[in-house]
Amino acid sequence: MAFKRIFGLVMDSVGAGAAPDSGKYGDQGADTLGHVGQFYEGNLQLPNLARLGLSNLHGTPIMGVPVNPDPHAYYGKMQEISAGKDSMDGHWEMMGLPVTKALSTFPNGFPQDLLDKLEAFSGRKIIGNRPESGTKIIAELGEQQMRTGDLIVYTSGDSVIQIAAHEDVIPLAELYKICDYARSLVNGPEYLVGRIIARPYVGPDAQHFTRTANRRDFTLEPTGETDLDRLQSAGVHVVGVGKINDIFSGHGIDEGYHNESNMDGMDHVDHVMAEDFEGFCFINLVDFDAMYGHRRNPQGFGQALMDFDRRLGTVLANLRDDDLLLITADHGNDPTYTGSDHTRELVPLLAYSPSFKQGGSLGIRSPFADFGATVLDNFNVTGNGRGHSFLADLN
Ligand SMILES: O=P(O)(O)O[C@H]1O[C@H](CO)[C@@H](O)[C@H]1O
Ligand SMILES: [Mn+2]
Ligand SMILES: [Mn+2]
Q: Where does Mn(2+) 2 bind (predicted)?
């Protein structure tokens, strides 16, 4: 069946259990959904996701989330083939562009030549320069930055250069300019970095610093055509909600919305759903990741899932018979795991339309490109051969 509209919703970080290659990443036993469920000891209430089949796909049921003997959705998991476990890898792979060559990471801090160039361009001294949690590093160095105007530059296990700046000390426009310059330094061949991330924050002192929604990701331009470009070239309307626009550097996107939060993102989804269009709406909800996964906060993670589930209820009620909703994730970020990095996990896959007579299993799909191949198939757009459509399984 061909759907008029497809809504592809990425719950950023919501992994469904360790991937077979998790050992290579030091992530054995990670399980974002399973461990959040255990943390809640049966009180994780996700009635809408449960009805669709969230616990059915998880293997062992998620505590508190009953397995539905008659699931409303087609359910499965997806396994990533990209070398990295960051958002960019996950989303590009979903859109037919796996990132199989590892991007540059900086476990010992950034090389001197990069630091020199950044200092010369910005006229500011660089402090930090190590892998660290973003909230920890501003608590440690933010007051120093307020006194000196130094630039806090840090990284993580991902291919990222993150620049934290107090909004009253380094104005946003200046921060973005520095990030844009940093972007220009690492587009290859020597360094190929996934993202430069501007991390503005506010607050009077270390106890009260909070990061703001003015975060901006300066992502590597897609290194080839993606399914979004293919859809757009074929005249299929493409809407991006949340980080999607950043992740694809705007390529292949006709209409973009920036999210202030998950709930703001769901407001955008409601808004787009009320529009009459034919096409693909690609949505990223990042709070699971940025506010709870990296912060190793299972309590907050579970609450964010429950808040999302509530809003999903409205989406399900508003879906039309010729709409398809695909729900998935880009990687794991188990809030009970050691460290503060993403975890290499399988991701959930749920496919639902009110027109379905029943649900069923889609098995384990790999690569993530099966997702994009399904969208292309629906709109009769030719892909690059990456991924297999599961459209014919949905009825
Ligand atoms: O600790 P914070 O600053 O949130 O950074 C995290 O956010 C980045 C992007 O998801 C990750 O690479 C990780 O470093
Ligand atoms: Mn992500
Ligand atoms: Mn992240």
A: 289, 294, 342
ipTM of the complex: 0.96
What's the rounded Cα separation, in Å, for the pair 269 and 282? 10
Residues near ion ligand 3 (Cβ under 5 Å): 289
Residue nearest to atom 3 of ligand 1 (CA): 134
> What stretches in the chain show pLDDT beneath 50?
none
Domain hosting residue 117, numbered range: 112-219
Residues within a 6 A CB radius of ligand 1: 87, 133-134, 156, 158, 160, 162, 199, 289-290, 294, 340
Dihedral angle computed from the Cα positions of residues 239, 356, 66 and 299, in that order, rounded to the nearest 10 degrees = 10
Of 8, 48, 4, 2, the closest CA to residue 275 belongs to 4
pLDDT at 1: 55
CA torsion through residues 164, 158, 261, 253, sign: positive
Domain assignment present for residue 328? The answer is yes
Work out the widest C-alpha separation in the chain, in whole angstroms: 64
| Residue ranges at the known binding site | 12, 289, 294, 330-331, 342
Judgement on whether residues 41 and 161 belong to the same structural domain of the protein: no
The predicted structure's pLDDT at residue 97: 98
- Looking at the structure of the chain, the number of domains it has is 2
Q: What is the pTM of this model?
A: 0.94
Binding-site residue ranges for Mn(2+): 12, 289, 294, 330-331, 342
d(CA 275, CA 363): 33
Yes or no: say if 314 and 293 are a contact pair by the CB < 8 Å rule.
Answer: no
CATH of the domain at 93: 3.40.720.10
